[in-house]
Design goal:
By secondary structure, this protein is of the alpha+beta class. About 45% of the residues lie in helices and about 20% in strands. The strands form two sheets. It has a five-stranded antiparallel sheet, with helices on one face. The protein has a five-stranded antiparallel sheet with strand order 2-3-4-5-8.
Length: about 350
């Protein structure tokens, strides 16, 4: 079966045919053999290296044959014909080199395009995974909750910040805010793994937030999750007297901020325990405070208080000042005002989890 000539061959074939026809039409007295050197150069642009070599050889063979028609092998003309044939060889070599460089460049571009497509697919998958995990908080009688997440401006729409809230069998509600090192797909995957493990631990064991974080630290080390993360875990337990107990443990995370119903704002500063991922034997402590109706606790990641040219303490002072006039505002509105203007303009991811005792 004879295969049809590829359309890419039409151009170099046309060059050979046209140059040959022009030389023949010009007659023996006109030497236009040098035009044949264009054929391998054209092939180098549109075809592969093997085809370029083939057109170089074809051009050289035609130049030799046309030399007889043009009477270029006489004593007076053979030297000029020799130079023309040498030029054909040089042009063929140049064409092959140009074709090789083009193919290498195309291979690099194709590889980079494939890697970019793979990266985009991975980022899209991680973003979908992250959105599926960062869900709306549960409806808990006596509590009001609001959550927010903003990705960092200079990174893909994925990161290692997360929040979680879920009820436990004993009637308490577990609150979690965490930050995995990194702002990429790997950080998002580690976040998902840590979130799932923590949920499983908290749902199956009876223990305080400190005990949950200790178990999570050991589990991550056993699973060989080689990363560092800060986590603050807390429980909200309604009391028989109508009051509510807020108990938390902090593994290297920014401290919670308490907004009282009377408008006073305080940072729940305590000695910070070691972050997760270093050792599974770190001592962790629980801390508790009493919440009255209308009181609000804000859990957040450090992206909320990070400011270029400022320390984290200065950022925390800003947060206290920003929350003071928001004490009596609806919880959703409080979060919106607090994060106003930050979307797409923050150097780090921001996750916020706010809980309020219903009045």
């Amino acid at each position: 079966m004879v295969r049809p000539v590829s359309r890419r061959h039409l151009l170099p074939l046309g060059v050979l045919a046209l140059c040959t026809a022009v030389d023949l039409a010009a007659g023996p007295g006109q030497v236009l053999i040098g035009l044949l050197a264009m054929a391998p150069l054209v092939a180098a642009v549109v075809l592969g290296r093997g085809a370029t070599i083939g057109y170089g050889l074809a051009a050289f063979a035609l130049a030799v044959l046309l030399g007889f028609y043009d009477r270029q092998y006489t004593d007076a003309a053979v030297l000029g014909q020799s130079f023309r044939l040498l030029g054909m060889v040089v042009s063929g070599v140049i064409a092959v080199l140009a074709c090789t460089l083009r193919l290498r460049r195309e291979a690099v571009i194709a590889r980079l395009s494939t890697e970019a497509a793979t990266s985009r697919a991975a980022v899209q998958l991680a973003a979908s995974l992250q959105r599926s995990l960062l869900t709306e908080p549960p409806v808990v009688p006596g509590l009001e909750m609001a959550v927010r997440y903003l990705p960092a401006m200079q990174h893909a729409q994925v990161g290692g910040d997360w929040y979680d809230a879920f009820p436990l069998a004993d009637g308490t509600t577990m609150l979690v805010i965490g930050d995995v090192a990194g702002h990429d797909v790997a950080a998002a995957a580690t976040m998902a793994q840590a979130r799932g493990v923590l949920r499983g631990i908290a749902s199956t064991m009876t223990g305080s937030p400190a005990a949950v974080l200790s178990a999570l630290d050991r589990a991550l080390l056993q699973l060989r999750v080689e990363t560092l993360m800060t986590v603050a875990a807390a429980t909200v337990r309604p009391g028989a007297d109508g009051g509510t107990t807020f108990t938390w443990s902090n593994a290297g995370h920014p401290p919670p901020v308490l907004v009282r119903a009377d408008g006073s704002v305080s940072v729940l500063r305590t000695p910070t325990d070691l972050l997760l991922g270093i050792t599974g034997t770190a001592r962790r402590a629980d801390h508790s405070t009493h919440l009255s109706p209308g009181d609000t606790v804000l859990l957040y990641t450090d992206g909320l208080v990070e400011r270029r040219g400022s320390t984290l303490d200065e950022g925390t002072d800003w947060l206290v000042e920003a929350l003071t006039p928001l004490a009596g505002r609806p919880l959703e509105e409080l979060c919106d005002v607090l994060l106003e203007g930050m979307a797409g303009a923050v150097p780090d991811d921001v996750a916020v989890l706010a809980v309020r005792v219903r009045a």
